[in-house]
Amino acid sequence: MAGQSPIVKIFACTQSSELASKIAKHYGLNLGNVNFSHYSDGEYQPSFEESVRGARLFIIGSTHPSTDNLMEMLLMIDAAKRSSARHITAVMPYFGWARQDRKDKPRVPIGAKLVANLLIAAGATRIITMDLHADQIQGFFEKPVDHLYASTIFIPYIDSLKLEELTIASPDMGGSKRAYAYSRFLESNVVVCYKQRKKANIISHMELIGDVTGKNVIIVDDMVDTAGTLTKAADLMVNRGAKSVRAVATHALLSGDAYEKIDKSKLKELIITDSIPQKKKSKKIKVLTCSKLFADVMQNVNSNQSINSFFIK
After folding, report:
1. What is the C-alpha to C-alpha distance for residues 30 and 11, in angstroms, rounded to an integer?
2. The whole model's pTM is what?
């Protein structure tokens, strides 16, 4: 029938199957059936085990390392395109390779732009993601990008803590804009850490700009990888007189000995989302789900309604 809305189907990449199940449940659907064939050399092939012709597909998968996660998303998008899906939305809670958003020295790639090109070439007609490492990555796409903010999840939780003398902190100069956005909603002061690096993931020096004496500090960041910056900042603030230090980070990569650093640090709590599945548990890490946020946005996208209400930045 002309003008009829397409059937909605939700599929999961293997690395995000748990989160995708939660999203589908909030949406009110079951996950679609997709099967992966594996070759002995490690190559794999996804196969939709149900018709997707004319449907609106939401394919859910974060593209954190290894590169298999990105390749899996690309193969599923390509399979959907070749199966005559009408709309193919790549739902990427964590958009990997986003730290390579510019040429910061000669003869290096712009990895985020390359990934954007690959997604569009594969057949994605829309991207839904959360807390990109750099907002300008949206401009790398020639298709619509819905860029969500985990502040809609974190701010209510921070409010529930009822912390007095609250101060928001940025772990580096680049994250100061994000910290000021949180401080505006929480009506708090802001401090900023200034750091110098020897090379990627290795800090040579860190200094604090602002006073944290007697304050309950919450460090705000988009991701935590080795946790070196985060734990160093927390220890520095406690040494400068902070009453307590917590941190919120949307994407928890937690590579190397990150868990051990967090457990040994003066961080009281690290609050993260489930955009990336965790390798292990820690008594200091609290996980808040982003599933309802994504499900609600997907429903509005499907019904052509505004998603402006989901943007607390």
Report:
1. 9
2. 0.93
* pLDDT tens by residue, the chain, 313 residues: 445 678 999 999 999 999 999 999 999 999 999 999 999 999 999 999 999 999 999 999 999 999 999 999 999 999 999 999 999 999 999 999 999 999 989 999 999 999 999 999 999 999 999 999 999 999 999 999 999 999 999 999 999 999 999 999 998 888 889 999 999 999 999 999 887 666 665 655 788 999 999 999 999 999 999 999 899 999 999 999 999 999 999 999 999 999 999 999 999 999 999 999 999 999 999 999 999 999 999 999 999 999 887 775 5
195 is catalytic: yes
What tokens does 275 get? 């955009």
Q: How many domains does the chain have?
A: 2
Up-side HSE of residue 154: CA atoms within 13 Å toward CB? 34
Q: Of the residues 81, 195, 266, 292, which is catalytic?
A: 195
Instruction: Please report where in the chains the tokens 């007697």 appear, as a residue.
Output: 214
**Same domain for 103 and 87:** yes
Sheet order of strands, 202-209 included: 202-209, 189-199, 166-170, 216-224, 244-252, 269-273, 285-288
Domain-located, residue 1:
no
User: For residues 284 and 252, what is the distance between their CA atoms, to the nearest angstrom?
Assistant: 13
| CATH code for the domain in which residue 303 is found | 3.40.50.2020
Query: In terms of domains, do 72 and 15 share one?
Result: yes
Q: Are residues 37 and 49 in the same domain?
A: yes
Range of the domain at 233: 151-288
Judge whether 3 lies within some domain. Answer: no
Phi, psi of 33 (to 5 degrees): -95, 115
Shared domain check, 273 and 194: yes
